[in-house]
Amino acid sequence: MAEKRDYYEILGVSKTASADEIKKAYRKVAMKFHPDRNPGDAAAEESFKEASEAYEVLSDADKKARYDQFGHQAFAPGGGFGGGFGGGFHDASDIFEQVFGGGFNINDLFGGGGGRRRRNGPARGSDLRYDLDVDFEEAALGSHRTITLPVSEPCDHCKGSGAQPGTSKQTCPTCRGQGQVQAGGGFIQFSQTCPTCGGAGETISTPCGACNGAGSIKRRQKLKLRIPAGVESGSRQRLPGKGEAGMRGGPPGDLFIVFHVRDHDFFKRSDLDIYCEVPVPFHIAMLGGEIEVPTIHGGAKLKIPSGTQSGKIYRLRGQGIADAAHGGGKGDQNVMVEIEVPSRLSGKEKKAMKELCDQLHDNHFELSAKMKKTAQKFYERKRKLEAE
Q1: Do 216 and 154 form a contact (C-beta atoms < 8 A)?
Q2: Could you tell me how far CA 279 lies from the centroid of its own chain?
Q3: Where residue 22 falls among pLDDT bands split at 50, 70, 90?
Q4: Closest to 201 in 3D by CA, of 117, 126, 124
Q5: Among 89, 111, 133, where does a domain finish?
Q6: How do residues 329-386 score in pLDDT, each as one tens digit?
Q7: Which domain holds residue 103?
Q8: I need a surface site. Which of 109, 327, 345, 370 has the fewest CB within 10 A?
Q9: Other CB atoms closer than 10 Å to residue 68's CB: what's the count?
Q10: Vertex 89, ends 86 and 94: CA angle to 5°?
């Protein structure tokens, strides 16, 4: 027989651990290796049994003291200390139940909810997800859509019972209506879903002819949807009660709309702000003037100072996305200038343009002068490095 592991090592605590620390450590280990969580895993089952044995000793002050002094020999047959392992507990499940509370249900413990409950009561319907592609304009300004999706609804023929009208369900003879049966044996015993009724607690001898005993049928349902202004890709909208039908008279689930916003050729978005690149005729950029800029709310005037360069960004306040979620104001639109030079000039136009340009000098072009100065410094340094 393999040598027993140290109880403190099994639970991962020190000898000075408090009762609360020991209990917390056992909960963690027991939940990890519980047979219901690891069906068919003999190693996990053995670890669960081992952890329960360790907790049964270390949680009892008297047994813990004896174990600290004599180790596993304190509970060996003929050890003379009496009691031994199992005093007050029948198996590992008893210990687990004592720690987590009476009438525990492992499915409730790991999946939500608490305490044993009958599986044949009303059950809420499943939530549904619908991914909706929307244009940039719809997302920015808000819109309305009609969508069609398949949804389970209570069967009209059997009123959601699943049984043919004139007949009724019967209590499951295997689990006697509990929806679960006891499995395992000896030291390890745990609950599992009833194989006869699938956890419903009831059986149907004459299923409904319309829904084949499901209690619900699939129908294509049309829903009118309001797209709020300002939604982004990944935004979710919850429609209560528009999900799958509930079981056995339970309420329906919810429908979650997940938005995916298509890109726009001109407008780009960042949070509530809009960004765009606007071409500005070179003469307006040179002399100054006013241009009209498209915004999601309509055209807006933008003053361009003389000498404006490409890449300059101007802000149009309040021309961005409305903060509908928080009832606040609007974002801004950020306009990046892109200088546009004329194309397809006639010979006469080119001649006139040349006469104008001949009057310009290097000091009219600050960026070019700055570039030449920077390059000159680089080449001077380069020559010094080559001379060394």
Answers
A1: yes
A2: 41
A3: very high
A4: 117
A5: 111
A6: 789 999 999 999 988 889 998 898 888 888 888 778 888 888 888 999 999 988 989 8
A7: 7-111
A8: 327
A9: 13
A10: 130
CA-CA distance, 313 to 277, in Å (whole number)? 9
Q: Do both 144 and 63 map to the same domain? A: no
Would you tell me how many other CB atoms lie within 10 Å of the CB of residue 205? 11
Would you tell me how many other CB atoms lie within 10 Å of the CB of residue 76?
Answer: 14
Residue at 2 is within a domain: no
For 370, other C-beta atoms within 10 Å of its C-beta total: 10
Q: Is residue 361 part of a domain?
A: yes
CB neighbour list of residue 367: distance below 8 Å, 6 or more residues apart:
309
Cα angle value 106/107/108 (rounded, 5°): 90
Residues 307, 310, 315, 319: what is their CA dihedral angle, to the nearest 10 degrees? Answer: 120
Distance CA(256)–CA(278), nearest Å, equals 38
Strands 255-261 and 128-134: parallel
The residue with tokens 């938005």 is 259
The whole model's pTM is what? 0.54
- The total number of structural domains in the chain stands at 5
CA distance 202 to 122: 13
Q: What's the pLDDT tens digit per position in 111-149?
A: 433 333 444 556 788 888 889 999 999 999 899 999 988
CA atoms of 10 and 55, how far apart (whole Å): 9
CA distances from 168 to 171, 175, 255 (A): 10, 18, 31
CA distance 193 to 119: 9
**Of the candidates 123, 88, 98, which has an alpha carbon nearest to the alpha carbon of residue 27?**
98
Asked which of 228, 245, 263 is the last residue of a domain, the reply is 263
For residue 80, pLDDT over 60 is answered with: no
CATH number, residue 159: 2.60.260.20
Q: Tokens 């546009």 label which residue?
A: 340
The H-or-E segment that residue 258 falls in is strand 255-261
- CATH number, domain of 41, equals 1.10.287.110
Terminal Cα-to-Cα distance of the chain (whole angstroms):
81
Q: φ and ψ at 132, to 5 degrees?
A: -120, 120
**25 neighbors 52 (Cβ within 8 angstroms):** no
Q: What is the largest CA-CA distance in the chain?
A: 120
